[in-house]
Amino acid sequence: MEFVDLRTGYLLTGFDDFESAYSATEQLCDKGFKVAYLNEASHVRDPEVRNFTRCFNEQDEKKYQNYHYILRDEAKTKAVESMKTALEVLEQKISRKAKFIMVVDTKK
Question: At the top level of its lineage, which domain of life is listed (predicted)?
């Protein structure tokens, strides 16, 4: 299973279908991880992912990590845009589209 480190204490992973995502929850929970979020990639909303994506406070405005870059380069204005960049990085790693995404809490 491949992950993208969201640099917030959470990892992002993706699946082809709900059944494989659901079955992975058992494996991850058995290893001591907690599933914090599971949703269809096309249904992700900004308020749902704000806590999972890395945030930078810049002059009275929040910017969110663009996971194509290591630093604050090309930061995004919305958390959902940030999560989409993390999903793109994940899809490059796994060489396929992920229909479902899962965010896992790394704190055991």
Answer: Bacteria
Q: Give mean pLDDT in consecutive 10-residue pieces for the chain, a chain of 108 residues.
A: 95 96 92 94 96 89 93 91 98 96 88
52, 45 Cβ separation under 8 angstroms:
no
Residue whose pair of structure tokens reads 């969110």 in the numeric block? 64
How far is the C-alpha of 79 from the C-alpha of 68, rounded, in Å? 14
Contacts of 33 (CB under 8 A, 6+ apart): 104, 105, 106, 108
Tokens, residue 11: 């990892």
Q: What is the pTM of this model?
A: 0.92
Report the candidate in 78, 74, 21, 71 with the shortest Cα–Cα distance to residue 45: 78
